[in-house]
């Protein structure tokens, strides 16, 4: 007969753990590991945090007995257990020590058999043959021992050591049975704790020598410092000898419990936010974590149990600089991964020692959200379950010198409203309604179609309006005036409003000042449905030095060039991109595609191209280094622009790219595979701003009429090079700010003459070969120069204002110019071919008169005559084609309805057989003062 428990044994009980008290089952104690054959006391860890060593016996996983009728009968300890075996946290209750005979016991008279308690669901269950497999519902009988109807759980008994004594003798406690409850259990370092499950897995023999599940000291330090490159290899669940080790890093948590099906195991608190435990499982289960904080319990997935969300192809393309949809790989993306909803964070930071995610979801403490490095790509990634749209975030980057910096996401698709700088998790649910527009826009290239552009600074066009409010007014206004396109000054996020958007920090996010990204989509969609194309200023030339944005992003020059002389932009105090680096070039090319594909932008006007093309741009000798050929061309920038244009035109049919390029660089709008005299292929743009025409023509108009004859060439010189590129004639924001005055204020004379010059100039511009661009406010002759603080002076169009008719008249002229322009192919069909233009008289400098013909492919003409003198010229003879029977005025800028003196040619003008200006016929016109007249065949 086995020894009866003494009084001391009955009184000894382990410290109770926090478990529910509702369960009616009793917990049967499993024999201790490696119990000595000669009744050697089993060594037991004195504290719950003791590390389990292979040679150190520890308490075994106890069974949780779940009885149907909540009646526990007497249990009989097997003789395989060591006498006086120690089991912590067990309370003795009606323990009847009866001798039971183990069937088929192992030979060699081992005092403790190698036994794995089986999972048995049966009535009258008794001890059966020791086995490592689960026994299902076997009815067995042993001599003199019987158990009442009970459902038992899995229990694991480790190998019994028959000869080797414990490696360390620790104070032991005599086994006492304790009430078992169905609550959570505590998984210590050396054991799985008190497992409460009806269907736990057993551990194969080769895994039975347990190891410590705790995070090692080196990994622990790196995780705390934020310099761990692969936290997923440490945290989460991992197979180890003895079962599955669970490790969690949850700063500020009071406890962490693993929940896998019906298994609940409280992990050991290892201090500093680390928790660990070893569960006797065969393989890693699906599990969740219950994380207890002060005042709350968080039920969540473990972020460190997920596979990477980026594949090898993504990483390969990023490294090659060829990921054309980079915005789908990097940034923050709400998604479902391995069946779990959450957000994938990824960022390129190859020089970082470590990267963590901080945001509103972790109270801006990224300590517990360490990202992993994906090989040699420089990309860091982390999937955070249960995190969704609207959360703010940044990346906490540990620099190579060990210092830390908080950075906004370079590929954030939404940002906070400036001056706040955080990135915002977002995804689009917008449903487009512009399919008809997209199908139609590719029917003709931009240089062979009408292209009249209204340039807008959205925040100041109607100050205070959001994207959706602008969508109610802007399309209607632009359509009424007849423009074919709007050009939006930079929409991408920028911290300083005074930069007008040209110092970008959020290249993938529309500015939050006016609404959400989907709100901006709504504006673009509304313009398209009104038949208006949308161009956008795009700034790949430079970026500001803000310490939360791109500058030295991961502690070293990354997006900017490593050479300080190459990196610093001398004019604006900004940094230039390193176009020679694959990933940087990819960042910009993909950004161009992003705006065209995600927001249906119809064209990109690329800012400051000249500053990109020349190494010595705004630099003195000694401040720049020649290229490999000894020249001043930035070969990396050339290659980038060629790649960008080729990629955009290949992927997005119907778009146009426009270069703001102020030099005589050869082949800006030539195809990239066609080499010019300089040996370079073309840059591949669709159109180029004609900065020379703009400068020369405004210079001419600024002179008093009496002096204009000395500057006549400034109005004609543009035709010398008009067909060298595909040009846009820009009167942009740059010409009406910083003391330059508005367009009408540049004109000489009194107010009447200023407006007359203004009208005549606009009609000359619309008739000149090239497309047109006019900045907001100039369409109604605003007198003050533009300010982003208050926008156009709309009050000038208030009917209550005395001079309102004069301003409204100019706007009416712009409407009529656009109407006639769009209806007259001669004004746009052959803009880039010499066959579309013929001088009638270009040398009448003394008269301040310019006259020319515009022709369409069928030879249909439009005659434009400008008189830039403040006098009426009666019977002014002009040579014309003889095959036109009569001409009539299509536009006269001196008409009374536009605010002019109403000197017109009301009747059709018939040609005379008198040769003039080298032509067989001529007409006599009355030329109004300071005016431009358009005539078409009657």
Automatic annotation (TrEMBL):
Q: What is this protein called?
A: 1,4-alpha-glucan branching enzyme GlgB
Q: Where is the composition biased (Low complexity)?
A: 1-60, 73-85, 108-130, 138-165
Q: Gene name on record?
A: glgB
Biological process according to GO = chromosome condensation; glycogen biosynthetic process
> Can you tell which superkingdom this protein's organism belongs to?
Bacteria
Example GO molecular function term?
Answer: cation binding
Instruction: Write out the pathway annotation from the protein's UniProt entry.
Output: Glycan biosynthesis; glycogen biosynthesis
Q: Segment Disordered: which positions?
A: 1-181
Organism of this sequence: Streptomyces swartbergensis
